[in-house]
Write a structure and sequence with these properties.
alpha/beta; Rossmann fold; 6-stranded parallel beta sheet; 12 helices; 14 strands; 18% strand
């Protein structure tokens, strides 16, 4: 979908090329009021179009004077921002290193900002972005299944010509934002089918409720159980909150103790939200007398370093090497260049290890 302000920006860009070609020295664009009349639109729409042209380095704007052709076509900002929960933990150091390498070859730099899963911190960063107008912003959403008061700021950035690229999941606005998605239902089905081939018929799962990825993975387990003809026991699936996950990261095992006490019963296989959960769960299960995978198998998502840490190595789904960074880099560059961006889905690869 192309918004009206983008069409106006494209039309004005053609006029700019003509102004540069005619060599008559006219470097001033029509006023906002004149542009509103020409394109039969609001001043807000005209300003959004001019924001795009300014971002692309085609014009400069002088307060009280108007917009003028730029002497240079250089972008005012060649920095890509990446807003993620914690740039120093889990899968992110490798991803960030790969992104920095890929963007540098395209003459862009990467600035990483950690939200710590805080809506307040995310808001502070978005307000700063509105001041600096980076070339593009990659956002890993915080709790995307519940309301977020920061959406108007993201929409304002989008309206001012800053491309928004969501990683893994997306906020509902802007509706035409780029999203690099995983095939989460398919991934969960892949794990269920793998464990079923090893003789398992009684499954359990532990997933994040305020992350759409967790809900999709839970739904994938349900559909897969139905497809292979085994019961889906809803009481065996635990949906936790981000606040519970935060406590687990801080060393509080109460989330996993509740899961073991309330959900396992006679189950023989567990699908986990991620490798962090799986790694901590296996340690707790073994402490409580379970043998993995003899008594109960464990599988998870992400194929991170946690999957290869500890005595029991975790069977986990991951993406091909550099698949995420390449998809992000290609989408960002296409967005910055105002090219059409195809939908991007990240398929899973199964890494079978000793946990199941």
């Amino acid at each position: 979908m192309v918004f009206k302000y983008q069409n106006i920006a494209n039309h004005i860009e053609l006029q700019i090329l003509q102004m540069q070609a005619d060599g008559r020295g006219n470097r001033k664009l029509p006023t906002e009021q004149e542009l509103c009349k020409t394109y039969a639109c609001s001043r807000q729409t005209v300003r959004a179009a001019l924001d795009i042209l300014e971002y692309e380095g085609l014009i400069t704007r002088r307060q009280g004077s108007g917009a003028y052709l730029s002497d240079s076509h250089q972008k005012p900002n060649d920095t890509i921002w990446f807003l993620t929960e914690d740039q120093d933990e889990y899968i992110y150091p490798d991803l960030i290193s790969q992104l920095k390498s890929q963007f540098s070859t395209m003459h862009f730099s990467l600035s990483c900002r950690s939200t710590s899963g805080s809506i307040r911190k995310e808001r502070e960063m978005l307000l700063e972005a509105l001041q600096q107008l980076p070339a593009a912003i990659i956002i890993e959403p915080i709790r995307d299944t519940i309301p977020n008061p920061n959406l108007p700021l993201i929409e304002e950035l989008h309206d001012r010509g800053v491309p928004i690229i969501y990683l893994y999941s997306a906020y509902p606005r802007p509706s035409d934002a780029i999203v690099i998605r995983e095939e989460n239902q398919d991934g969960a089905a892949m794990l269920i089918c793998h464990l079923a081939k090893r003789g398992h018929k009684r499954f359990s799962g532990i997933f994040c409720a305020d992350d759409s990825r967790g809900l999709a993975r839970c739904q994938g387990c349900m559909h897969a159980c139905q497809d292979i003809g085994v019961p889906f026991d809803e009481d065996a699936y635990y949906l936790f909150s981000s606040s519970e996950m935060k406590k687990l990261r801080q060393g509080d095992p109460s989330l996993l103790n509740r899961f073991i006490d309330n959900c396992l019963s006679d189950k023989t296989a567990i699908i986990c939200q991620n490798d962090i959960i799986a790694h901590q769960l296996i340690k707790l299960l073994e402490k409580r007398g379970y043998s993995v995978p003899e008594d109960i198998a464990v599988a998870s998502f992400d194929n991170s370093y946690y999957a290869n840490t500890g005595r029991t190595r975790i069977t986990s789904l991951g993406h091909q090497d550099r698949a995420v960074s390449s998809a992000l880099a290609q989408s960002v560059m296409a967005a910055v260049s105002r090219r059409v961006i195809p939908k991007t889905h990240l398929p899973w690869t199964l890494h079978i290890r000793t946990s199941g």
